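The methods section describes the discrete structure representation at length, but only in general terms. The central task, working out the structure tokens from the amino acid sequence alone, is never made concrete. Nothing conveys this as quickly as seeing an actual entry. For illustration, here is how one protein appears when written out as sequence plus structure tokens:
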Amino acid sequence: MTDVLHQRPEADRTTGKAAPPSKPRRAGLPRLLKGSGPRRPNYPAGLASLIWLVIVGAPLYVLVATTFRTRDGYIDDGPLALPTHPTLANYDRVLSSHFFSYLGNTLVVTAVCAAIVIVLSVTVGYAVVRARSRMSRRVFQIFLLGLAIPSQAVIIPIYLVITKLQLYDTLLAVILPTAAFSLPVSVLILAGTMRDIDEELYESMALDGAGPTRVLLRLVVPMSRAGISTVGVYSALHAWNGFMFPLILTQSRSNRVLTLGLYDYVGEFRVDTPALLTAVVLSIVPIFVVYLFARRQLINGLMGVGGK
């Protein structure tokens, strides 16, 4: 090795002069591509991003800034002007009214709907994936058919069924149809997630003598946590933002949810816009916080990559 390193360069056969030593090539350094250099700024993309920022930011600015105005100031100055005399009177008015009662009802509806959807979609998805019978395929097709039925088209039959069951003007009247219309998408998500589980894992559990219930609880549920999180977030968002079922199936103030509570600031001849938008902001905050922590699971599950 030392003889090779200290060997002098051989003489050129034509000139008789010693050839210049070749520069050692550094290993591991990538070659620079031709034409690489500082990239020119993309002005059209920057302009488009700025326009999109204005489109998204302007409504948010109007929403938040209006909550610090008085009703007269909102009418005189306009929605885009800065609040000249900021006030927290709107927040005090909303929080001192029935807001916490509406919030409690909404939390109950959201939590119960999410629990029902998770339990049913996990069991139905597991049966569809593992049964592999004609009956399971028919059940899965029925759930997929639910994707094509809008809730507005069946609101009258739902109203009649709820009335016959003597559930009208109760929170259960809102929970049951809301959970039912969240099930088709949830079953579709979890069925795709459970199909990504390796068949060898099912076979190893069966060789160990595990029954269907043990396989579901010990294997399928832990391996489908991302899909279950997606289903939970999706059903919670659907229940939190629900408006039609609470409007049609409830009547008393004690059973109102946040979406119906906004009517407290809408009169026959006028609308208290600052108080109305303050209630909107306060009703957005809880579910927005949940979405911030679970948005990754929601997106991954909807893309069908949450099974592994």
Q: What stands out?
A: Residues 171 and 255 are 6 Å apart (CA to CA). Residues 54-87 form one domain. DSSP finds 14 helices and no strands in the chain.
